[in-house]
Design goal:
alpha+beta, 16% helix, 187 residues, globular
Length: 187
């Protein structure tokens, strides 16, 4: 091998690695549904790179809830590593066939396909209903999510999320429900 070809291969490898390492999907915005406790709120959901086989899913949430006569704010970011294949339709078709995926970080269970109608009246067809449960070695389970993956929704594809957050001050555990609103424009 010539010296020039070695330099070219090294340069190509460096560019490829930096492109993969810098990956982040577009953020999608979800609006939380109001109920007797939740007054308003939203979620931003996106993927970022971990390595060739895995991505991190980020669920960045903020909501206002009412306790007695005062409003409280709960916000946070839940992050979990999932296999990269579960970011595509083919991956969710595999999960449907397998029924469940388990590793040291996460349990993902497929609960069948549904047609989902969002609060804005838009209907998404042939969606996958999936439960995402982080695995914790310290036994301090702080959240889980039941989401509806729809190939028609851009970026992460989540049209609906039921996020259960545990250990909320004065409230305990609360499930908040959200619907896809759109992609957040990059600045």
């Amino acid at each position: 091998m010539t010296r020039l070809s070695v330099v070219f291969i090294s340069l190509f490898s460096l560019i490829s690695i930096s492109l993969v390492a810098g990956f982040q999907s577009e953020k999608i915005l979800h609006t939380l549904r109001k109920d007797g406790i939740v007054r308003e709120g939203n979620m931003k959901i996106y993927y970022s790179d971990v390595d060739v086989d895995n991505v991190k899913v980020h669920i960045d949430y903020r909501f206002v809830y009412r306790i007695l006569f005062s409003n409280k704010v709960k916000q946070g970011v839940e992050v979990e590593t999932i296999p990269r294949k579960y970011t595509t339709l083919d991956g969710f078709l595999d999960l449907e066939r397998e029924g469940e995926f388990r590793n040291k970080d996460v349990i993902m269970s497929h609960f069948g396909r549904i047609d989902y109608t969002a609060k804005n009246g838009r209907t998404y067809y042939d969606c996958h209903k999936v439960k995402l449960i982080p695995v914790r070695t310290d036994k301090k389970m702080t959240w889980d999510a039941l989401f509806t993956y729809c190939p028609e929704v851009p970026s992460v594809g989540w049209a609906h999320v039921a996020l259960t957050i545990k250990r909320i001050p004065f409230l305990g555990s609360k499930t908040v429900y959200s619907d896809y609103q759109g992609v957040i424009a990059k600045k």
